[in-house]
Specification:
By secondary structure, this protein is of the alpha+beta class. The chain is built from 7 helices and 6 strands. The strands form 3 sheets. The protein has a two-stranded antiparallel ribbon. The protein has a two-stranded antiparallel sheet with strand order 3-4. A two-stranded antiparallel sheet has the order 5-6. Helix 6 (about 130-135) packs across helix 7 (about 140-145). The longest helix has 16 residues, at about 95-110. The termini are far apart. The relative contact order is 0.14. The structure holds zinc ion.
């Protein structure tokens, strides 16, 4: 991965990078996530540009939001690692990231099995994922994962 200094040398909204990023995602109409289409080989999608590999979500953050300070990590507020929607990305320190993960872990485990079944029934009736996320106090990607049995598989 390329150092933050390289990312920060880029100007906001580069015409040679933004279309490349947008060509690699599909917008999820339920969650508004911009989901990476190619296989992810590491933890996050990566893109080859200007002679190096860079995390796609970090690049999207710099292109659409602002430059990153040294040590800042880019977090997903949607919990979707494939997503590069700049509105779903938040920059902060590594410490914030850990705190956030702990908090999210509590949010996810807060769901009871009956609620998980309810979420699946509601999704089958075309109830919007975002409305369910708000109602159950979880992220839209949690709803997506429940619906597609990527989580709570045993139910
Ligand atoms: Zn997202």
């Amino acid at each position: 991965m390329i150092a933050v200094s390289w990312l920060n040398s880029l100007t906001f909204y580069r015409d040679d990078i933004v279309p490349l990023l947008l060509s690699k995602v599909e917008k999820n109409i339920d969650t508004d996530c911009w989901e990476w289409l190619e296989d992810i080989k590491a933890r996050y999608p990566a893109v080859w540009t200007h002679g190096g590999m860079v995390n796609a979500h970090r690049l999207a953050f710099v292109m659409f939001n602002r430059k990153l300070a040294p040590g800042e990590v880019v977090r997903h507020i949607c919990d979707n690692r494939r997503c590069i929607n700049p509105l779903h990305l938040l920059a902060g320190s590594q410490a914030d990231n850990v705190k956030d993960m702990v908090k999210r872990g509590r949010l996810v485990s807060k769901l009871a099995p009956e609620q998980v079944k309810e979420i699946r029934q509601q999704r089958a009736r075309k109830e919007p994922a975002l409305a369910l996320a708000t109602r159950f106090g979880v992220s839209a990607s949690t709803i997506y994962n429940i619906e597609h049995r990527k989580s709570w598989k045993h139910l």
